Amino acid sequence: MQNSVPYSEAIVAKYPEQIVIGIAKQAGGKCNPITLGWTMITSHEPAMMAVSIGLTRHSLEVFRNADQFVIAMPSEAQADEAMLFGTKSGRNCDKFDEAGTLLSPAEKVDGVLMADAVANFECRKVSELPTGDHVIFVGEVVASHVNPEKPDRLYTLSEGFKMGGLPRG
Q1: Phi, psi torsion values for 127, nearest 5 degrees
Q2: How far apart are CA 56 and CA 81, in angstroms?
Q3: Contacts 24+ apart (CB under 8 A), 158-162
Q4: In terms of CATH, what superfamily is 17-152?
Q5: pTM of the model
Q6: At a CB cut-off of 8 Å and minimum separation 6, what does 66 contact?
Q7: pLDDT over 70 percentage in the chain
């Protein structure tokens, strides 16, 4: 049996929720990371992934102006970085520099990988779709990377900013 409740009450049942870090290069060459909860695989053949970015975010224009982006799956040890990337604007600061994030160059797109992340996916943007107060960006995965140390993924555990890792497997 189900009880009828407002959307705002029912949607909290989605936790734990995966999070990712979307990374796109701004004009001027600085890579801008943003923490995102709304992400998904959209196709296996060809491999495609999507992220959704709010209309009020500085990163929206960065992604709109970029032809490519990276989706990084942060490790549990990167909770502080994920918090910073999701609460600070890249308009006036270099979030990677401020967080001290270890980066490595991407292989097939003009961007960077988060070296300590669980996985990174290099994407060429193929479409964008306005959806109310967010825009969905879809990218074809052109290169994939995994961390050989297999760290635990970072998830949002409850409404707000409480984050933690869930064991793999």
Answers
A1: -165, 165
A2: 21
A3: 158/12, 158/15, 159/12, 159/15, 161/83, 161/86, 161/87
A4: Electron Transport, Fmn-binding Protein; Chain A (2.30.110.10)
A5: 0.91
A6: 24, 25, 125
A7: 92
